[in-house]
Amino acid sequence: MDHFNYEGDQLVAEQVPLSAIADRFGTPCYVYSRATLTRHWRAFDEALGAQAHLICFAVKANSNLAVLDVLARLGAGFDIVSVGELERVLAAGGDPAKVIFSGVGKRADEIRRALEVGIRCFNVESEPELLRIGEIAGALGCLAPVSLRVNPDVDAQSHPYISTGLKENKFGIDIQSADALYRQAARHPHLRVLGIDCHIGSQLTSLGPFLDAIDRVLALADRLAAEGIEVEHLDLGGGLGIRYTNEMPPLPDAYAAALAERLGERRYEIILEPGRSIAGNAGVLLTRVEYLKRTPAHQFAIVDAAMNDLLRPALYDAEQEIVPVCRPDPDAPTDLFEIVGPVCETGDFLGRQRRLALAEGDLLAVRSSGAYGFSMSSNYNSRPRAPEVMVDGDQAYLVRSRESVDALFAGERRLP
Ligand SMILES: Cc1ncc(COP(=O)(O)O)c(C=O)c1O
Ligand SMILES: N[C@@H](CCCC[NH3+])C(=O)O
After folding, report:
1. How would you classify the pairing of strands 77-80 and 4-7?
2. Is the CB of 162 under 6 A from ligand 2?
3. Which residues are annotated binding-site positions for substrate?
4. Pick the CATH number of 4-32+280-408 from 3.40.50.1100, 3.10.25.10, 2.40.37.10, 3.90.1150.10
5. Which CATH number is correct for 103-272, 3.20.20.10, 3.20.19.10, 3.40.50.800, 1.20.1260.10?
6. Mean pLDDT value across residues 227-243
7. Can you tell me which atom of ligand 2 is nearest the CA of 203?
8. Of 102, 90, 193, nearest in space to 143 by CA
9. Sequence-distant (≥ 6) Cβ neighbours of residue 120 within 8 angstroms
10. Pocket lining for ligand 1, CB < 6 angstroms
11. Which of 32, 258, 361, 402 has the smallest set of CB atoms within 10 Å of its CB?
12. What pLDDT does residue 159 have?
């Protein structure tokens, strides 16, 4: 469910027609809905109910400060993977004590900064990283809170580029070798073992792989407890999928119910790190048709958004719905369009073989673009990044301006 719906023939975000946003802020343009972000975050929070829990939004999905601020005000924690994301969370008013630091390659300066601001926990991905965190904590004279991210060797049945829980993947510590590393961490004078962490992939559309992973994590927790290493929390990562076209992913309450059943009598705080399921359907990318171009093979609609703005179709062959912002006359002739951008790559498409009635100048909305949309955008082809707008009821706020062409070469210089 989202808050982008047709009223009459107009696609409206909450109470603001998207055509009005395009007129005011231009295209391409990202548009987010505060009500949808709020509803999706609360769906997790309420699903876990009385179970001790913390819902940490995965900042990589959408790191816009207004988005982080909306979630921080709801009481969200944040899952970060770089010091840049940490600074964004702090700038948005997020509580460092609710920050989880994930990622396979944390640099020393990033670890130091996270310890200085007092984050909740590091999700550690290797023995050398564990030792580095311990050493830095020693130098700072503090205790570093850690979980080990274990790799349970579970197939997430998602796109291979976004599956992370197989033993072939670079992520996590083999769950069989984790016990020994836990013992080492528990003995370390500058480490405090807080939990067990696991994240098996993204855009999962069934519960089976989550449950397999949970079973393996619980078996590890039980083994550790038997040795006297009692962890406080289990961090089960993110990964719950969303409906892009016709997927039917489980909802947070089904996930929470299955989790409660697996936990039984065990009393752990549960941390989740959802990104896509909170932000994905809380945003659209608005774009305008520049040209229609018929070739012997295809009818192309060349739009003003491109793979630099929304990389998912090019990178994963991902399908996202593309709909008209103003519904055309039902009798208007349709065609099968290749919806492509202006970037000089054949892979620069937003949608393939889409049946639409299109004319030059028409506005389109690429749905489900609130996660891994702007956050994966680039300046490829020296294209300025699109603006971001947040709708809140009947108001639309510019929450990040369109990048200027000057900003594209700020900081660069020629040789003397
Ligand atoms: C460690 C970690 N946590 C959380 C997430 C968020 O995942 P998703 O957006 O699928 O919920 C990711 C991305 O897959 C991740 O790598
Ligand atoms: N960027 C990916 C998801 C990667 C998740 C990050 N671990 C996507 O758009 O689907």
Report:
1. unpaired
2. yes
3. 276, 312, 316, 345, 372
4. 2.40.37.10
5. 3.20.20.10
6. 97
7. 10
8. 193
9. 54, 77, 96, 97, 98, 99, 100, 145, 194
10. 58, 61, 79, 102, 199, 202, 237-239, 273-277, 371
11. 361
12. 79
271 confidence band (pLDDT: 50, 70, 90): very high
Q: Can you give the three-state secondary structure of the chain, one letter per residue?
A: CCCEEEECCEEEECCEEHHHHHHHHCCCEEEEEHHHHHHHHHHHHHHHCCCCEEEEEEHHHCCCHHHHHHHHHHCCEEEECCHHHHHHHHHCCCCHHHEEECCCCCCHHHHHHHHHHCCCEEEECCHHHHHHHHHHHHHHCCCEEEEEEEECCCCCCCCHHHECCCCCCCCCEECCCHHHHHHHHHHCCCEEEEEEECCCECCECCCHHHHHHHHHHHHHHHHHHHCCCCCCEEECCCCECCCCCCCCCCCHHHHHHHHHHHHCCCCCEEEECCCHHHHHHHEEEEEEEEEEEECCCCEEEEECCCCCCCCHHHHHCCCCCEEECECCCCCCCCEEEEEECCCCCCCCEEEEEEEECCCCCCEEEECCCCCCCHHHCCCHHHCCCCCEEEEECCEEEEEECCCCHHHHCCCCCCCC
How far apart are the C-alpha atoms of 206 and 218, rounded to whole Å?
20
The predicted pLDDT at position 163 comes to: 74
Pocket lining: 60 vs ligand 2, CB cutoff 6 Å: yes
Over range 338-349, report the average pLDDT: 97
Domain boundaries, the chain: 4-32+280-408, 103-272
- State the Cα–Cα distance between residues 58 and 102, nearest whole angstrom: 10
Catalytic residue check, 344: yes
Q: What is the ipTM of this complex?
A: 0.99
Torsion of CA 165, 243, 399, 84, to 10 degrees: 0
Q: Which residues of 105-140 are buried (b: 16+ CB within 10 A; e: fewer)?
A: ebeeebbbbbbeeebbbbbbbbeebbebbbebbeee
